[in-house]
Amino acid sequence: MARPAGLSPPPWLTAGLRPQPAPVPWAAVARASVALAAPLAVGFALDQPVSGALVSMGALSGVIGDTADAYRMRFYNIAVPQLFGALGVTLGSLVHGQGWLAVAVLTVIALVSGMISSIGAVASVSGLLLLLNAVVGAGLPLPDPWWKAPFLLTLGGVVVLALTLLGWPLRGGVPERAAVAGTYRAVAVLFEAAGSDTYDEKRRAVTTSLDQSYDLVLARRARQHGRTPVLVRLLAQLNVVIPLVEAAPAAHLAARRFHRPVPPEIPAAVRDLADAVEEGRTGTPVLDLPDAARPSEKAVDQALRHAATVVHEAEPDPYDVDDRLGRPAALRIRFRRTTRAVLLSEPSWRYGLRLALCIGLAQSLVSLVPVPRSYWVALTVTFVMKPDFGSVFSRAVLRALGTAAGLAVAALLLAELERGWWDVPVMLVLGGLIPAFSAKGYAFQTAAITPVILLLSDLLNEQGVDLVLPRLYDSLIGCAIALIAGYLLWPESWHTRIGDRLADAVADTATYVTCAFDPVQQSQAVRVRARRALYRDLSAVRSEFQRALTEPPPTGTLATAWWPLVVAVERIVDATTAARVRVEHGAAPPDPSEVTAVERQLRELADGLRSSSVLVEVRAELLGDEEGVLAPLRQEVRAARAIATPRGENGPDGT
Q1: d(Cα 269, Cα 274) in Å, to the nearest integer?
Q2: What is residue 654's predicted lDDT score, i.e. its pLDDT?
Q3: Which of 199, 194, 191, 250 is nearest to 587 (CA)?
Q4: Residue 66: in which H helix or E strand, if any?
């Protein structure tokens, strides 16, 4: 029987409760089980259960941070945050029991943690551990001397790191090759989807895969400034994907408008290249491709033959390989740039102040009101207030629900099992659930982590099942503080940033249109960088859109209105690329006045997006040769302006 519509919870509230269709990372499950259970076993064997629990707590931080694919990235993702965690627990333990001094110190640490979280993934986890461990050090009585707790927590991270790197000698470079091969396979799927309604979805998958592969390879080259053969070959193989990706829109256009589908030999050949990349095969490529007569067919044929030559080349010239997105600068230069950007960034200061306010309120509250083991309040605030992990509102709700589920499991274990060796097999099971549940969503991750933290905390304070209800109250208090002081009191929480980011993307699209057909700017590298930057911007818009959908009305409702325009802008970029490719392979170039008219319409759209959030239809007059290469582009621009062009508050014309 269907539930009445009025009694059904809204989608923005239930979105995070649906498990994501992600595979179980069995290797991570095994590592987490061993890393969390082994220290407890050693601690019991040496009659040092508290020390074993602290090592397991450090291992828990390492398990949460072990999210990268490449071994070098995993090393930094685990090792660097552990150093910040050690600093945090040291600072926190120095102000343990110091009342308002602890409030002041934790508030300053929260400000620093929030500001550095905007730098990147490693910095985000580092800021998280800095604050989390500072809160734990200030809230729990840790064993003397002062260096013991930081050492044991860091040792736990070292255990996870050692288990993670066991396969490095045998699988070094495998994740990078797998990522590049995965990009080739995504391109093969894209060609199969040419002309179909699933093309946009497959093209977004290619963009995501290409971004991840470049990030992986270029991040590794940032630490190896010499042009090593393995990395040169990977980068060369990745670069030659770009012409294939650029030829795909032209193939899609031909399949959709002229009913010329892509021959099956094309995606089959691309998949064969993917296998060659992953297996490291070299030699003379063998291609059985259909004859190419039209511009779109010539573009695909030429790009595929060039890719086959490079993929099968044993030793590419290290000085003939272009870093398509720019080669990373030296570490000291990037450090100076990042520091300056963080200190001068308004969003960085704004988030740091929001987090500091919430932590200050949490610590002030527990200093005034006797709350058992009150550090859990600030821990909850820290987890909920991570902006790069999703919506603060939805995370607060999901945190409360996940904690309640995890506490129910913890209560059963604490009530039925005696503390001691039984904790080892229990931790073996619970530890493995963390990476398995983390892949399913935040609420599931919280439900898996909560009983682990409760069991480890019980080894430190021995409160047993009496610990459960205070933890629930603390979590609800922390969620309430995050919702009120970190969400409701800040006007920006009620306004989506999609419009501003999309306006920037539309303006960049206008620049890309000019660049693509400007006879002065004919450098392929310039066009490639512009196009890649555009798709990265649109990926950021998509991320912001997905986050906004989990916000309550009116934010989520307003964000939904922008979605068709996001898709339309992506299609404009594709149409521009398709036109450029057709010109390069024999089609007549467009008249400069046509290019200028398209650019003007896009500039007007960008200006309108910045000035208003009300969307109405506008009839765009774009004249030109309907048989020329820009005809599909003009059609996409008209569609974009008809879908969502802003108007002023007083009327369509802004008067």
Answers
A1: 9
A2: 36
A3: 250
A4: none
